[in-house]
Amino acid sequence: MKNLITCLMLCVFIVSCSPKKEYEAVNENASLPEKFDFNAMNLKVVTSSINHKKQTMMTLYGNPSAINELKGNSGKGENKERVLTLITWSQKGDPYWYGAKIPDHLLSVEVIKSEKPFAEHSEILYQKYEGKDLKKVDAEGADRIHTILSMKPSIMP
Asked: Which tops the pLDDT comparison, 11 or 110?
């Protein structure tokens, strides 16, 4: 009986000695490349959404002038450039929180800029970047501009 208990304890010890996966502090797959210099744009979160069918998640960022216009306060900062940036990621299950989803791979970044209010629909510049390295893509942006501008800002205190 003693030998059986000792053998079981030894087996449990051997099985429990497997190397543990270290905690990943930064999700490298979902990170934007440094050359894109996203932090220098000084943007704030406008809204976010999840597409369950495509297994993607998106976050819309904007500068203060663009956010004010989306909220209906277009009188403020009339001559300032408006910038909106929509970032899209694929999703994966969170290994540290059961049932949660987190960004996996960076799919695209879409940027729209305008010196005039978006409501005028004139001189809106659309740029699209795809993939981990964010290679610029030639894309027709009329539908995407309309889709991005129709996103409602989140209500934050």
From this structure: 110
pLDDT in tens, 99-127: 899 899 999 999 999 888 887 777 889 99
Q: Report whether 86 contacts 58 (CB < 8 A).
A: yes
User: Which of 155, 69, 51 minimizes the C-alpha distance to 112?
Assistant: 69
Structure token pair of residue 20? 């543990």
Spatial contact of 63 and 81, defined as CB atoms under 8 Å apart: yes
pTM of the shown model:
0.79
| Burial of residue 143 (number of CB atoms within 10 Å: 0-12, 13-18, 19+) | exposed
Q: Which residues pair with 1 in a beta bridge?
A: none
The DSSP line for 122-154 is -S-EEEEEETTTTEEE----HHHHHHHHTPPPP
Q: How far apart are the first and last CA of the chain?
A: 66
Q: H/E element holding 61?
A: strand 56-62
